[in-house]
UniProtKB/TrEMBL annotation:
Keyword list, A-Z: Hydrolase, Metal-binding, Pyridine nucleotide biosynthesis
Source organism: Rhodanobacter denitrificans
GO terms for biological process, alphabetical: pyridine nucleotide biosynthetic process
Source organism, top-level taxon: Bacteria
Protein name, per record: nicotinamidase
Pathway listed: Cofactor biosynthesis; nicotinate biosynthesis; nicotinate from nicotinamide: step 1/1
Any one GO MF annotation of this record: nicotinamidase activity
The enzyme's E.C. designation: 3.5.1.19
Enzyme class: hydrolase
Length: 212
């Protein structure tokens, strides 16, 4: 990302929350390693528009394995006709693990998009919830917010690279934004997924770039 940034570019920071880092309830591999780089990037003020997403689940959320007796974390079930991974309880509203990470100076933020607050629907992407009972993926409002500000390009980073970062970048591209993933400022749930994530991004024309 050494080229000059367009004033119509936005940075989307996905779920930079303690529960997704070592010691958290759904820790991503090496997840805390991105915190200093994200903090440094925000201090440069290179982006005119900066948005963070925040996983924000009520207790008993449908995506939690504990909400399905007899099921274990990381099992898959069918939910509304779609595959649903069951996760450990994480990012419960109002808990320290759900907060935006305190190691980042968030003063450059323009907006925070909270997702996953519907107890019956999971939400990976910053743009749209997962499929719900009506077969649709409701908007979070992020696309409209960006368009109102003339944004036509987004750079996505955060956690997890193989889930919420990936889905956010895919939706951005599908909704008409040029999308790139800042690979060095994201981490996966498990590095075993990285090859598949790279292949998916490349096949869909989504950029893979470095922040530095």
């Amino acid at each position: 990302m050494n080229q000059p940034l367009s004033p119509h570019a936005a940075l989307i920071l996905v779920d930079v929350q303690p529960d997704f880092m070592p010691g958290g309830t759904l820790a991503c591999h090496d997840g805390d390693a991105i915190v200093p780089g994200i903090d440094a990037l925000l201090h440069t003020r290179r982006f005119r528009h900066v948005v963070a997403t925040q996983d924000w689940h009520p207790r008993g959320h449908v995506s939690f394995a504990g909400s399905h007796p007899g099921r274990a974390p990381f099992e898959q079930i069918a939910l509304y006709g779609q595959p649903q991974t069951l996760w450990p309880e994480h990012c419960v509203q109002g808990t320290p693990g759900a907060a935006l990470h305190p190691g980042v100076d968030w003063s450059a933020l323009d907006a925070v998009i909270r997702k996953g607050s519907d107890s019956a629907v999971d939400s990976y992407s910053g743009f749209r919830e997962n499929h719900g009972p009506h077969g649709t993926r409701p908007s979070t409002g992020l696309a409209g917010w960006l368009r109102e500000r003339g944004v036509d390009e987004v750079f996505v980073c955060g956690l997890a690279r193989d889930v919420c970062v990936l889905w956010t970048a895919q939706d951005a591209q599908a909704l008409g934004f040029r999308a790139s993933v800042l690979w060095d400022l994201s981490r996966p749930v498990t590095p075993a997924s990285d090859e598949a994530t790279r292949a998916t991004l490349q096949a869909q024309g989504i950029g893979i770039v470095a922040a530095v």
